[in-house]
Amino acid sequence: MKRNLVIAIISLLLTACGGNVVYTQFKSLPVKGWEADSLLRFEPVINDTLTDYEMQITIRHTDAYPYQNMWLFVGIEKDSTVLLTDTIEFYLANDRGEWLGGGLTVKELPLLYRENHQFANSGTYRITLQQGMREETLKGITEVGVQILSKE
Fold first, then answer.
1. CATH architecture of 22-150
2. In what order do the strands lie in the sheet with 53-61?
3. Element (H, E) at 65
4. Going by C-beta distance under 8 Å and a sequence separation of 6 or more, which residues neighbour residue 62?
5. DSSP letter assigned to residue 25
6. What is the pLDDT along the chain (152 residues), one digit of tens a residue?
7. How many Cα atoms occupy the beta-carbon half-sphere of 44 within 13 Å?
8. For residues 11 and 135, what is the distance between their CA atoms, to the nearest angstrom?
9. Antiparallel, parallel or unpaired: β 53-61 and 69-78
10. 84 has which bridge partners?
11. What distance in Å separates the CA atoms of residue 53 and residue 85, rounded to the nearest whole number?
12. Rounded CA separation 26/151 (Å)
């Protein structure tokens, strides 16, 4: 009886959490590090232009990451037209050097990038991410992901 209850609760939570995910993808980075000139490309397909979306960027890293913060260059394109470029800074550790986010050997930190974002046209978009640190090869970042959630 208890086992069935636990399975039912887990199923309910998974269904409730995943109901509004429109797009999610992670890109793995080489063990040697994230090269400064390496662009990560994500290509979500957006069908609903009336809905507000939340865009998240998730960073997965190890203790080998040498900094408290990180800078990213973000671009959004549609049909080879640049719609948006941003430079964002976020923190992976607090002032005491303790990592933010969850995980044991690999830390995962989701970051809200845009809230209440509307896409003007339906179709395939291209989101590019590039590390903006002053390192040719940035060590310790294992994966970077983009997730788009419908706010409805």
1. Sandwich (2.60)
2. 21-28, 141-150, 53-61, 107-117
3. none
4. 105, 106, 107, 140, 142
5. E
6. 544 444 444 444 444 444 599 999 999 999 999 999 999 999 999 999 999 999 999 999 999 999 999 999 999 999 999 999 999 999 999 999 999 999 999 999 999 999 999 999 999 999 999 999 999 999 999 999 999 999 87
7. 25
8. 43
9. unpaired
10. 76
11. 18
12. 21
Q: How many residues can be counted in the chain?
A: 152
Tokens in use for 43?
């290509």
Closest CA to 113 of 65, 42, 30: 42
Q: Show the tokens assigned to 126.
A: 């291209």
Task: Write out the E strands in the chain.
Answer: 21-28, 34-35, 40-42, 45-46, 53-61, 69-78, 81-91, 107-117, 123-131, 137-138, 141-150
Q: What is the DSSP letter of 63?
A: T
